[in-house]
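SAMPLE LOG
Freezer: B-3
Tube label: C17
Construct: single chain, 163 aa
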Amino acid sequence: MSKTSAAAEVTPPSDGLERKAGSFTLDPACVAQVDRILGTLSERYPDLAREAIETLGAMARRFVAAPLDVEAGKELYRIAHGLKGNAATLGYPLVTTVAGSLCTLLEHEPSPCPRTQRAIAAHADALLLIIDRRLSGDGGVDGRELSRDLAVLVEKLTGRRAA
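STRUCTURE (predicted):
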């Protein structure tokens, strides 16, 4: 979250939801506190994500070396899926994009051939690069190019657009 971010927009619940959930109000002080916490987490995200990304890199190397290692493949997917799910919330949508691309690759190429193995390694390297350079947002020109190149690679290998 940037210090200049706009205030949160709150959409009132529909009548049906209000009947089911009951009436409630949002405390503006709580919303402000959550915004501050997310801002702090966003600033620290590269440091917080580093361990997961390093583990992902180790799992990628293990899976590339032994493509029939089902446990390594599952762990690689689990870590990528977790990164995909939380990075954008904390200001790193490029991590979300690359991790999503890796998930697509793993979903559609569960026993990778040599080309797919290189693509898995490229995704792991890209995630570490993003964190090392602290490429928040879309990563600028370099981030957009990286994202596009990986998406093209995944589409060529799987016939599917990366998630």
